[in-house]
Each structure stands twice: as structure tokens, then as C-alpha cells.
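In the previous chapter we treated chains in isolation. Here, by contrast, the input contains two separate entities that must be folded as one system, with a combined length of 476 residues.
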Amino acid sequence: MNEIWNDFMTYRSELIDGLGVSIRLALLTFAIGLPAGLLLAVASFSRSKAVRITAVVLVEIGRGTPALVMLQLVYYGIPVTLTGFLSAGIALALTTAAYTSEIIRGGLQAVPEAEIEAGQALGLKNFHIMRDIVIPQGLRIAIPPLLGFCIIIFQATSLAFTIAVPELLAQAKSIANVNFHYFNVFVIAGLLYAVITVPASLMTDRLERKMSRHLQMQ
Amino acid sequence: MRNSPAKATSPAIKLENVEKRFGDHVVLKQVSLTVDEGQVLALIGPSGAGKSTLLRCINLLERPTAGTITVDGVTVETDHKVSARELAALRSRVGMVFQSFNLFPHMTALRNIALPQQRVLGRSKEEAEERAHTLLKRVGLADKALQYPGRCSGGQQQRIAIARALALDPKVMLFDEPTSALDPELGLEVLKVMRELADEGMTMAIVTHEMQFARDVSDHLVVMSDGAITEEGDPQEIFAAPQQQRTRDFLRAVLDRR
């Protein structure tokens, strides 16, 4: 225990910097991936068959490709030179968009058909029915599973160490390569991930319970 | 009985040979009917007769497979594709109240009534909310403006739904079993609002199982069974002396229960 603590104290600034990069990478991923996921979910309700098919194809490619493959593809595969950080953000965002679109679609589908019909009878345009009635309620339903998925993606940012992004796992690996305390350093890295994911999971659970109560009330 | 307005002769709703099929199954068989301006039409009949389907054809929530629908001078031929413009013109003239209220649960009563005005009529938020307050007062719910539907009783929700439809200044109002999901006591407060609306001269078409209401408030009664009109005419006369066996059977079944 003591040794682990000592290693942490020695390398804390590198490790915490790494955690910072991981968090920023996750935030970039969500900033691109979640709106794209919403867009794909809405597209799957389109009246145009071409739009619906395009959405399904994109989602299936995104879900079918392992995140690590996506990462290598964006970093090495496309003829535009991007920083590792940006490449990782884009690659993880593609995966995020594909998976979250399915989660959001489920939420949107849970909005009762009767409310959509009421909107039509009032003369609301489909765009307004989507924006004012279906999305606000559907997203609310989707929030707990979305947060759960965001936690998984936060952990998946560790894949970025394969393209030399100085995130937490990459920092831990380079420290361990120097002091050979592989066990200690990776335990510390794991704990630092947990500092974020455990409270986030607990919050998600609480939110989920609170929301299911709210829904029962109606 | 109430006084009909002077110009009671122009039809507010006119259905001509409206037909609705699902594959081989015919739900509505060439139904024609007319509701004059300011009139109240009651549609009664056994379940599965096609009453709700017919009502839902008037604002094209249900697309008829054939026939012509005219509301307040807007005519829609339903056997070819209905354009978005036709649909909007028709729906702007028709308000609808559903059996299950169908309020938007994530909005307060006030927003439920104001939002459609802003989106459909382009009213400002202030104007729309002012009108919403006026209408809430009119349906006896002035104090519920900031309440969410989930916190209101069924009777209150239905009255909010009526206010929401009225806020768009429709020419005709459709009611699809507006009290069927309510306890009798709560149904009464909804019927009271509907009766006031009728007295003010609103053109209304009501699908209902409230026989007494149909007899007392409507000007014209339509009895349906098996997707067709069995009998229609003056409500008092039909209730007193139904001409058709089907009507007699139906009225006996529903009235004996009371």
C-alpha cells in the first residue's frame, strides 16, 4: 500500500495531467458524438426512406466497428493530418454517435403516439412535434442510459494511448517503463479512472430512480 | 334546447361518400352527413360502429380511402394525395378533444395552451399566454395555469385540452368520447363546459356514450352501426320513437343499464 502511495506522490503531476487529458478527450467525444447521435435518431424517424436508410447504415457501421479499429482508421487511415487528440475524439465520437442514437431512438419511441396525434390535430408541423413534444420527453427518458454509456466511453478514452495521446493510461505506461512498478502504477491509474466513474455511476443510479418515480406520478 | 344563430343554413362540416377500408375490411361505407354552422351533432352507436373513425376523418387523422370532406369552405378530395397545404388549411379550422386528453405532460397547463398558438398561428408568447389565461378562466381552471397535467384530475385535464383546442380559434370542434375515461362526477364538469360552448354557438361533432347529454344538447343525432348511418334526425324524436330495429336494440341496451 505504502509503495503505491509513494509512486503516486512521486508521479502525481504526470498522472493527474493524464487524467485531465482523458477528461478533455471524453468531453470532446461527447460534444461531437451526442448531438450526432440525436441527429441519427431523429433521421431514423424521417418520412424519406433515403434518409432512414442512410441513418441505419451509418449506425450499423458505427456499432459494427470496434472503437480501437475506428481509432486507427481515423489516425492513420484518412489522408488529413490531425493531432492524435483530435483523431481520438473524432473516432470515439463516431462510436458514441452510433450507440447513443439507438439509446435516444428508444427514448423518442417511448413518447406516446397519442401526443403526436394531438399535435397533428392542433395543426403543428412535424418539425415542431419533434422539437417541442417528442425530443424533450424522449431525451429525458434516455438520460440515465446515456449517462451509463458516457461512463463506458470515458473508460474507452484509454484506447487513445495506442496513438500516443498523453492521456492517463499512456502516462501510466511511460512511468512504469521507467520505474518498472507496473503493478503499482496501473493500480493507481485504475483508481484514478474510478475517481470519475464511481461517483458518476452512483449519480446515474440516483437519477434513474428519481426519474422513474417522476414518470409513475403521471 | 338552445337558439341556433341566424345563419344556420351554411354547412360547417360536409362529408360526402366517405369510405375507409383496411384491406378487405370496410370500416366506413360511403357515409355522408352535414353539420350546419352552430349545430351540435351527436354520434352514437355500438362500439365498432365506426363513430370515432368517422370523426377522425373530419380532420384527416384518419385518411379516408375515398370521399370528400368540406369544413368551413375548405374541400379535400381524399382519393388522391392530400397536400400539406390542404391538410394545414383543414386542421386550422378543426379543434379536437380526445378520450385520453393527450395533453403534453412536460408542459404546464399554460404552455400546453400557449405553445400551439405560437407555432401554428405565429402569436407572440405574451399574446398566446394571455389568451391561455382567458381560456383557463373560461373552463374554470384559472388557478391551474402553472400546474403540470400529471397533477390535475382527469376532468381538469380534459378541460385544459378543450381550452388548448379553442385557443386556435377553430370553426368546428370534434369531441371523441370526451368523458369516457372519467368518473361520472368528473365527466359532469366536462359536459358543463361543452354545454356552454354549444350555447355560445360553436359547431360541434361529438362521439359519446352519454345518452342524456346527446338528447338534451345536440341538434342532430346520428346513430351508426357497422360503418354506416342507421338512422339520423331530431334527437328527441329518435330517443322517443326510433324507426330502425338496430337503433331500438342499441338504445334499449344502453338505456336499460341506467
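The mean pLDDT of chain A is 92. The radius of gyration of chain A is 21 Å. Compare these points with the single-chain example from earlier in the chapter.
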